[in-house]
Amino acid sequence: MVVPIVLVVGYSFMDNVIMKRNPEFVGLDNFVEILTDGVFLTAIGNTLFFTIVSVVAHLVIGLAFAMLLNSTVISRATRGIFRVIYILPWLFTAAVIAVLWRMLLNPNGVVNYLLQSDVEWLSSPDLALGAVTFINIWAGYPFFMISLLAGLQGIPGDLYEAATVDGASPWQRFVSVTLPQLKPIIISMSLLDLIWTSQQFALIWMTTGGGPINVTEMLSTYTYKLAFSRYEFSLASTSAVLILLLSMVLAFFYVRHQRARD
Asked: Which compartments is it annotated to reside in (predicted)?
């Protein structure tokens, strides 16, 4: 891992490497060009929206389904069926998910048929970002659901019994017992999901390719296009270094939390 990282960092300070026989050292010029590029700034905004909305939705939906599967309101057989259904999105690869939802959201697809409409979900500048975010939410919530379900099953029943004896309502038990017990798991998974989602590439590339007109352009697709569409490998390396720095910040907080937890 060290060798390619060092190479990419070195490329970011050079004139267009690979495409030029004798690239020259240009210092921070590549960083200035990237940071002042309007498309890069758009990609940052899209990535922030995509990541934050996805992580929040993953947490909320995953916790809701985990509590449903952990409750005694429904029978054991029904819980087993729901577990299979809810876990299905996590079993598919990004390629399968992208193809599946491209077919469902096609103007002639099932979604438009059910809604009796002809909306261009993945081609509309107003809807494309929301559509790919929804797809990512659908694909990622099972990870939270499984982890939180394991956490819920590890909470001692005595805590709930004591809270009930003290007259706590279901909402008060949730706030005072469930959430504090799940807090370490929630923080760990949220930080991991922030790292993973901010680097999502395959799902975006295979659904919208960053379009239309950059409305779904992410940092990952922006970097890919710089390298393999425009052949600006030094600028692509610079973008990759900036993404690496962002990932290192998130990883720092994750490791710090894990050490504090241990």
From this structure: Cell membrane
First to last CA, the chain: 27
- The SS3 of residue 120 is coil
φ/ψ of residue 25, rounded to 5: -75, 125
CA–CA dist 158, 156 (Å, integer): 5
- Helices 76-91 & 38-70 angle (0-180, nearest 10): 160
pTM of the model: 0.91
Residue 58 and residue 8 share a domain: no
Domain coverage including residue 135: 38-211
Residue with tokens 């394991």: 150
Residue 65 placed within a domain: yes
* Same domain (yes/no): 197, 88: yes
117 found inside a domain? yes
Residues 91, 30 share a domain: no
Are the C-beta atoms of residues 198 and 47 closer than 8 Å to each other? yes
What phi, psi does 14 have (nearest 5°)? -115, 160
Residues 113 and 206 in one domain: yes
User: What is the amino acid identity at position 257?
Assistant: H
Tens digit of pLDDT for each residue in 82-103? Answer: 888 888 888 888 999 999 999 9
